[in-house]
UniProtKB/TrEMBL annotation:
GO terms for molecular function: kinase activity. Pfam families: Guanylate_kin. This is Guanylate kinase. It comes from Fusibacillus kribbianus. SUPFAM superfamilies: P-loop containing nucleoside triphosphate hydrolases.
Length: 204
């Protein structure tokens, strides 16, 4: 039985960078899952690459069929935009393990979805960076944007402390933290855990 390795962490903790390195690692042979969104496609995006682009009616239909693994809806100035993961055949735990990225809340929802089907397959990978350093990385990344949004950066930085409260981590049984000081050694540390879990999952 495969596992779902689920990367989480506050903004600018390095989730995307770590995700890319792990996903490219042939030895781990992890598959990724393409999410769906109801937001309009942006220029440069491609159907099925960044997301599958669908409308709210499609999402409602999948909810009715019980096929929505997790869904997050954000109120934007353009109206509500949903981002969701479907049980659409992409995840085949009988033959593969998967690498996903999300929030603490989505981790909980995905975990519950599979546990309700008797599958305890979730492995949390929680990335951490000291707050001062993380804020500096976030600012440096934002400076590279054509139109930096510093107010949004600050809003997310403050919201993170609430979302990732110690008690929330504890409640979900997340007791291991991967410090992203130097990214290569952080990825090596995570890789060792993934290989160990994959070895374990082959025994049972
Ligand atoms: N170990 C590291 N040392 C220095 N810079 C790093 C390190 N890891 C990642 N970064 C840089 O920090 C910034 C944030 O990383 P990344 O975008 O991967 O984080 P994230 O957690 O996916 O962020 P968000 O959730 O806000 O999108 C990027 O500019 C990235 O290149």
């Amino acid at each position: 039985m495969g596992r779902i390795f689920y990367i989480m962490g506050k903004s600018a903790s390095g989730k995307d960078s770590i995700f890319r390195m792990l996903a490219a690692d042939q030895e781990l042979a992890l598959k990724t899952v393409t999410m769906y969104t109801t937001r309009p496609m942006r220029s440069g995006e491609e159907e099925g690459r960044e997301y599958f682009f669908r409308d709210a009616g499609f999402l409602a239909g999948k909810k009715a069929e019980g096929r929505v693994i997790e869904c997050r809806t954000y109120d934007t100035v353009f109206g509500p935009w949903s981002y969701f993961t479907l049980d659409d055949g992409q995840i085949d735990l009988a033959s593969h393990s998967y690498l996903m990225i999300g929030t603490l809340e989505s981790y909980e929802t995905v975990k519950e979805y599979f546990e309700a089907r008797g599958q305890r397959i979730m492995v949390p990978l929680y990335i951490e960076v000291e707050d001062g350093e993380r804020l500096l990385r976030a600012v440096r990344r934002e400076q590279l944007q054509a139109e930096p949004h510093y107010a949004e950066l600050c809003r997310r930085f403050l919201a993170d402390s609430e979302d990732f409260r110690e008690e929330n981590l504890k409640r979900l049984g997340i007791d291991r933290v991967f410090e992203n000081v130097e990214i290569a050694s952080c990825v090596e540390e995570i890789k060792a855990v993934i290989l160990e879990k994959q070895k374990e999952s082959m025994l049972y």
